[in-house]
Structure to design on (108 residues):
């Protein structure tokens, strides 16, 4: 998420001045709520949490703003449904219709 956030700022024409970094959405929201700056959070976070009423959230409409996800599982514990999800996802990855890790953001 860090790399994408920086690239989105650069595409918008500015470089952010970073004073604090955290991998914790709760920590980030606490810093924002205390007036320590702005932060990028996953969309799901803006609908939850105790600080929701204190912070203004704005969606980023840039179509290249995405988050890299991975699938991890233990073979001995995988459910039939999870196996089917992976089976459906793999062809899209092979066709390149999903963004591959390490690809740079393209400004639009």
């Amino acid at each position: 998420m860090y790399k994408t956030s920086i690239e989105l700022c650069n595409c918008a024409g500015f470089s952010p001045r970073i004073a604090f970094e955290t991998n914790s959405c709760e920590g980030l929201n606490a810093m924002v709520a205390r007036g320590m700056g702005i932060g990028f959070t996953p969309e799901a976070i803006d609908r939850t949490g105790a600080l929701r009423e204190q912070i203004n959230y704005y969606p980023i409409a840039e179509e290249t703003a995405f988050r890299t996800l991975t699938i991890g599982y233990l073979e001995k514990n995988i459910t039939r449904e999870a196996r089917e999800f992976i089976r459906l996802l793999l062809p899209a990855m092979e066709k390149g219709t999903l963004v591959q890790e390490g690809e740079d953001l393209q400004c639009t």
